[in-house]
């Protein structure tokens, strides 16, 4: 893959401006209790390493949110499976077009139940144990970030993805899972390098099964 900066996906001007405004508001108007004033801010729910939680950086979450908005289209539905950072960014109002799609977050961590009907309790060990209201092939884009780098975990999450998705899949996981991801979901590795708020010891990548600028090389 090329190292040229010209091929690296970047945030839209609208999203950059909205993020900058959010940062400015955060600096000038902190919550008196010292907690995040925006319930949809990445980090409003603290990472819990016991559940293998590692939140994306704001920039990565925003770029992935832009991607799913673009691919879902007007009135589209997005499922964020074990990827609350992207769900939060979709709801934060900083991504252009995010108000024109609907999104849900499938999570094991019940702290996210504060998001009401958008929260769907999810245990990857029971990949098809979903509420009866969650219909098969009912989401235009499914973005998933399996909590563990193992074939067993990815295989089970892949069952959930295939149940939910109308076709478009965006998978975020370790580079070492490339072969398994391709076999299970027919995805290709992107040139885009996602980043987290904390550095991970394993190389982390995105994989997709549709044409996208994230594939640029």
Automatic annotation (TrEMBL):
Transmembrane segments: none annotated. It catalyses: L-lysyl-[protein] + 3 S-adenosyl-L-methionine = N(6),N(6),N(6)-trimethyl-L-lysyl-[protein] + 3 S-adenosyl-L-homocysteine + 3 H(+). Pfam families: N6-adenineMlase. It is an enzyme of class 2 (transferase). Its EC number is 2.1.1.-. One of its GO terms (cellular component) is cytoplasm. GO terms for biological process: methylation. It is found in: Cytoplasm. HAMAP family: Methyltr_EFM5. Protein-lysine methyltransferase that selectively catalyzes the trimethylation of EEF1A at 'Lys-79'. This is EEF1A lysine methyltransferase 1. It comes from Cyprinodon variegatus (Sheepshead minnow).
């Amino acid at each position: 893959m090329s190292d040229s900066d010209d091929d690296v996906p970047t945030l839209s001007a609208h999203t950059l401006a909205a993020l900058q405004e959010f940062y400015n508001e955060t600096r000038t108007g902190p919550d008196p209790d010292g907690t995040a004033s925006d319930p949809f801010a990445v980090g409003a729910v603290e990472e819990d390493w016991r559940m293998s939680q590692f939140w994306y950086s704001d920039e990565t979450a925003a770029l992935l949110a832009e991607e799913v908005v673009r691919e879902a289209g007007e009135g589209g539905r997005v499922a964020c499976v074990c990827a609350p950072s992207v769900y939060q960014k979709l709801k934060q109002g900083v991504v252009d077009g995010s108000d024109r799609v609907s999104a849900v977050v499938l999570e094991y961590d019940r702290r996210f139940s504060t998001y009401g009907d958008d929260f769907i309790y999810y245990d990857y060990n029971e990949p098809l144990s979903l509420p009866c209201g969650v219909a098969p092939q009912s989401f235009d884009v499914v973005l998933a970030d399996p909590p563990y780098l193992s074939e067993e975990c990815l295989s089970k999450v892949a069952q959930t993805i295939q149940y939910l998705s109308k076709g478009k899949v965006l998978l975020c996981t370790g580079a070492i899972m490339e072969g398994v991801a391709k076999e299970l979901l027919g995805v290709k590795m992107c040139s885009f390098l996602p980043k987290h708020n904390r550095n991970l010891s394993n190389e982390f990548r995105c994989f997709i099964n549709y044409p996208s600028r994230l594939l640029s090389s």
